[in-house]
């Protein structure tokens, strides 16, 4: 019988996209006989309704509610806890470092995040670091903050390779449709992007990654998917699944 791994995921409360997408990704991994593990996913929510650079919006990501959610997941004896949110991309990557340390100290369970997973994959790839594109549903100032954080880390995302819808109400992000996403990805690729970051876990994009990669001969890192690969990586589990790579993109060829 395959080894059972419980994945614990912290979810923004108004997010309606990441849970079904995460379950679908896990189902693909479980169906692959070469994967050799049985995964289950367990969720806990923290209140997040608005994405902006205001103090009130930033306060949604305070440690206390995150730790409350992590403790509830710990009750289920999960093997790893992942924050399936991208707040550190604009708050600063140190925010995720502090969150993971706090969760691990409070629960004794390894912790990681969507952004940590994305950044790990960026470090592994051989594409030039000045050819990254960014696609989000966020406002211009949030997108600019993300660009600045990556620039501070040595990775340039030019304005020409940054696209956003200008929305701030988190519940609406799941309404971003595939034709609009296709156009946004097409645009950053036309401006030279060879790796595209889909930076929002409430955007239904993970199922489209494989199409974009084939269409443009690029790599796409989707934040819902990077949460899954980051959690497995935190447990020392390497993802090499042909079926998952076929359905969900190149990052599942190896974590």
From TrEMBL:
The keyword Hydrolase does not apply. Transmembrane segments: none annotated. Keywords: Isomerase. Pfam families: Amdase. It comes from the Eukaryota. Gene3D superfamilies: 3.40.50.12500. InterPro entries: Iso_Racemase_Enz_sf, MaiA/AMDase. One of its GO terms (molecular function) is isomerase activity. The keyword Transmembrane does not apply. PANTHER family: BLR3294 PROTEIN (PTHR40267). This is Maleate isomerase. It comes from Sporothrix schenckii 1099-18.
């Amino acid at each position: 019988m395959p080894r059972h791994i419980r994945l614990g995921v912290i979810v923004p409360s108004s997010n309606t996209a990441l849970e079904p997408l995460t379950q679908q990704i896990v189902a693909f991994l479980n169906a692959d006989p070469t994967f050799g593990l049985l995964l289950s996913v367990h969720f806990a929510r923290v209140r997040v309704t608005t994405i902006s650079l205001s103090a009130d919006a930033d306060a949604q990501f305070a440690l206390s509610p995150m730790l409350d959610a992590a403790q509830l997941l710990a009750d289920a004896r999960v093997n790893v806890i992942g924050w399936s949110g991208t707040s550190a991309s604009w708050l600063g990557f140190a925010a995720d470092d502090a969150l993971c340390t706090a969760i691990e100290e409070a629960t004794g369970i390894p912790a990681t995040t969507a952004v940590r997973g994305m950044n790990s994959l960026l470090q592994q790839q051989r594409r030039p670091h000045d050819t990254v594109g960014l696609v989000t549903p966020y406002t211009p100032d949030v997108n600019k903050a993300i660009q600045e954080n990556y620039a501070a880390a040595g990775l340039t995302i030019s304005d020409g390779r940054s696209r956003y819808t200008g929305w701030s109400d988190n519940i609406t992000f799941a309404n971003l449709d595939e034709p609009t996403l296709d156009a946004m990805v097409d645009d950053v690729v036309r401006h030279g992007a060879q790796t595209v970051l889909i930076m929002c876990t409430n955007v239904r994009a993970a199922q489209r990654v494989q199409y974009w990669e084939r269409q443009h001969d690029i790599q796409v890192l989707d934040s819902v998917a990077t949460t899954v690969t980051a959690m497995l990586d935190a447990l020392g589990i390497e993802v090499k699944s042909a079926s998952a790579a076929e359905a969900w993109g190149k990052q599942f060829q190896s974590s």
